[in-house]
Amino acid sequence: MALHEDPARFVDLARYPVIELDSPAGRALVAKCRAQLADDGACELPGFLRRDALARMQREAGEIAPRAHYQRGAATPYLELPAEHWPADHPRKRWNPFRVGAVAYDLIPREHALRQLYEWDGLTRFLAACLGEARLHFYADPLGALNVAVMGDGDELEWHFDQTDFVVSLALVPAEEGGDFLYAPRVRNDADECYGDVGAVLDGASQRVRRVPMEPGTLLLFQGRHSLHCVSKIRGARDRLVALLSYDRKPGTCASPLLQQGRYGRVVRPENERTTP
Question: What span, in angstroms and rounded, lies between the C-alpha atoms of 125 and 6?
């Protein structure tokens, strides 16, 4: 495959005119995305990829999936060690299991369609417009900028809040059973942790939870800092493959060495770094 393909050809431009943001159709698309984010912190774009591009990304992701590093254990919804003074049944002390594999950015060949799409300025400009930002920057993490998340039979991802403002994912291959994305939109806010509402979600007693079935080719822009979310347990022989595309509002951002070691089994630092949790 050519190393200098035009990544615009991977996107269904008739449905999502991401290269014509100043056109009436482009402005309408951005307005729709902003409205969805404002309403529930998530913007779902089904059929974002052309069918031929999706088939290629599925094949290429499947080729590198065996290179995933697996992380397993248990974590709280806040992805931190809880203080001792919290009661045993408090949401900050609720430990839940997880197991997920990740193919690091430096293991994804440059000629792969997924990597070309991630490194395309056209996609970055579109996402920035949806978020109301003048500009987004590629994540500086040599391992975490772009990942393929791999989940197989029995794997799951626990209920949690993100420590970043937003996440961009691209659904590639669904599991035979399970692997749905579940989230409770804006269950907390900057002024109130809303522990009662969080506890209700963890107990399976909340009416706020929404389920997003795994639809290959869907781009999801998700603001997970305030929305509790998880991935339901995987069943079956087929691996669930999802691409995670990372950006930041500031240049030079990189995950901590501890986080790199846990997720990828090794540490690789950029030349100029600004570390985040």
Answer: 15
Q: How far is CA 32 from CA 11, 161, 265, in A?
A: 18, 25, 40
Q: Which of the residues in the chain have pLDDT under 70? A: 1-4, 272-277
pLDDT tens string 9-44: 999 999 999 999 999 999 999 999 999 999 989 999
CA-based nearest residue to 245, from 72, 159, 116, 135 = 116
The CATH architecture that domain 7-251 belongs to is Sandwich (2.60)
Domain ranges of the chain: 7-251
Helix and strand counts by DSSP (H, E) for the chain: 6, 15
Quote the pTM value: 0.93
**Whole-angstrom distance, CA of residue 107 vs CA of residue 150:** 14
Task: With beta carbons less than 8 A apart as the criterion, state whether 61 and 148 touch.
Answer: yes
| Strand ranges for 208-252 from DSSP E | 210-212, 219-222, 228-231, 240-245, 247-248
- State both tokens at 271: 């030349």
Measured distance CA(106)–CA(190) in Å, rounded: 35
Distances from the Cα of 27 to the Cαs of 8, 16, 32, 83, in angstroms?
Answer: 18, 11, 9, 47
- Gap between the Cα atoms of 116 and 1, Å rounded: 11
